[in-house]
Design a protein that fits this description.
The protein is of the alpha/beta class. The protein has a domain of 210 residues: NAD(P)-binding Rossmann-like Domain (Rossmann fold). 35% of the residues lie in helices and 16% in strands. It contains ten helices and 13 strands. It has a seven-stranded parallel beta sheet with strand order 3-2-1-4-5-6-11, with helices on both faces. Strands 7-10 form a two-stranded parallel ribbon. Strand 4, helix 4 and strand 5 form a beta-alpha-beta unit. Helix 3 packs across helix 4, helix 4 packs parallel to helix 5 and helix 6 runs parallel beside helix 8. It binds nicotinamide-adenine-dinucleotide and uridine-5'-diphosphate-glucuronic acid. Nicotinamide-adenine-dinucleotide binds next to helix 1, helix 4 and strand 5.
Length: 341
């Protein structure tokens, strides 16, 4: 794996209070990197943000700033990123199935408008590299492993906003006057400790622990390339280290294999020794049949190979969940219910 340019302190992490952003922040701090963390959640009022950043907030190399990238003043943003060598842009409203209806306004603002504001600020501040957290959801329905040059037909409003964010990055990187190069990483369904409570593995494990059934959408034959969060963090750090002449790159980051929901449920049953309580529900709009990543480019550009097997990763997530003070009491706010200052 390519090493991180740790000398390039400070770095900015947007979405730092979230699931993946908090792991990235922890990894950077562990390397001794100074981190300017930006998130619209309050680490005082939002229990998920407080839990995710609990360790990081005790580290003197972390400066946390509560700011909404879509609406707050640009002057403030300029000040925050000035001097940064790398901006890791993870802030977004995630989740495929919740992106319909009036909630789309928040997706559009946080995933598209915020990305444009941040790119413009990066150019003003001459930040050399922005790494974008993009998504496998840009591909839509697929019939085999997705390569980065495949056509993109998102099946959900969320996927459309992530593709728009990628296109904004590419447009900025093509400007003749820019000094900001961009690497867009297409993460494939990420899991591990702190996983969002709306996501499948989190819900399946919560169902086993609580006995309250989890809804299975569709017939369970849909498959996902689940990717352990430590692998995602390793690839994200490596993306910061690709040489500067990169301009713009798009790279898949996956877990190395794709399993159906029924296979996933069977693995959870074997690990826990318990039957997963399920209710069968209709398929949900926006969900695709299958995701699978071709990792050739990730290997060539990032030196990336996934290290954590699904069974091991699920065991680690379960271990983390059972150690939580009250696993069922902390859940993500619905879109639009973020606790603000
Ligand atoms: P998350 O919701 O846990 O984290 C996202 C963070 O962004 C949250 O803390 C949120 O408060 C913050 N945020 C949202 N809008 C903001 C705004 N306008 N201004 C400032 N902060 C804002 O989600 P996650 O699962 O950690 O996802 C992180 C990134 O990775 C997202 O960009 C997501 O689209 C992408 N991604 C995630 C997955 C996955 O499986 N979790 C897969 C593919 C891509
Ligand atoms: C995940 C993230 O939530 C998105 O933010 C991200 O962009 C996307 O991965 C990605 O890879 O790009 P998703 O694949 O839907 O989206 O991940 P899960 O929420 O873990 O769902 C996986 C599968 O489980 C889906 O087929 C879903 O329908 C199913 N599921 C989920 C259920 O059957 N029941 C549930 O309660 C939750």
């Amino acid at each position: 794996m390519t090493t991180t340019p740790l000398t390039l302190s400070p770095v900015v992490v947007t979405g730092a209070a979230g699931f993946i952003g908090s792991h990235l922040t922890d990894a950077l701090l562990a390397h001794g990197t100074e981190v300017i963390a930006i998130d619209r959640r309050s680490v005082h009022k939002d229990p998920v943000a407080a839990r995710n950043l609990a360790d990081a907030l005790t580290n003197p190399n972390l400066a946390f700033h509560q700011a909404d990238l879509a609406t707050d003043e640009l002057d403030e943003l300029d000040e925050l990123i000035s001097g940064a060598r790398i901006v890791f842009h993870l802030a977004a409203v995630p989740g495929v199935r919740d992106s319909w209806d009036e909630r789309f306004r928040d997706y559009a603002a946080s995933n598209v408008v915020a990305t444009q504001c941040l790119l413009t600020a990066c150019e003003r501040a001459q930040v050399p590299r922005l790494v974008l957290a993009s998504s496998s959801s840009v591909y839509g329905q697929t019939s085999g492993p997705s390569t980065e040059s495949d056509p993109t037909y998102p099946m959900s409003p969320y996927g459309a906003t992530k593709l728009a964010a990628e296109h904004l990055c590419m447009a900025h990187a093509a400007r003749p006057d820019t000094s900001t190069s961009v690497v867009a990483l297409r993460y494939f369904t990420v899991y591990g400790p702190r996983q969002r409570s709306d996501m499948a593995i989190s819900r399946v494990l919560a169902a086993v622990l609580s006995g309250v059934p989890v809804p299975l959408y569709g017939d369970g034959q849909q498959s996902r390339e689940f990717t352990y969060v430590d692998d995602i963090v390793a690839a994200t750090l490596a993306a910061a280290a690709i040489p500067g002449e990169v301009g713009a790159e798009t790279v898949n980051v996956g877990g190395g294999s794709s399993v159906s929901m029924l296979e996933l449920i069977s693995v959870v049953g074997q690990i826990t020794g318990r039957k997963v309580p399920l209710t069968m529900e209709a398929p949900r709009a926006g969900d695709v049949e299958a995701t699978r990543a071709d990792l050739t480019r990730a290997h060539a550009l990032l030196g990336y190979s996934p290290r954590v097997e699904l069974r091991d990763g699920i065991a680690r997530q379960l271990d983390w969940m059972v150690k939580q003070p009250s696993p069922q009491s902390i859940s993500e706010p619905s879109v639009g219910e973020v606790v603000l200052r």
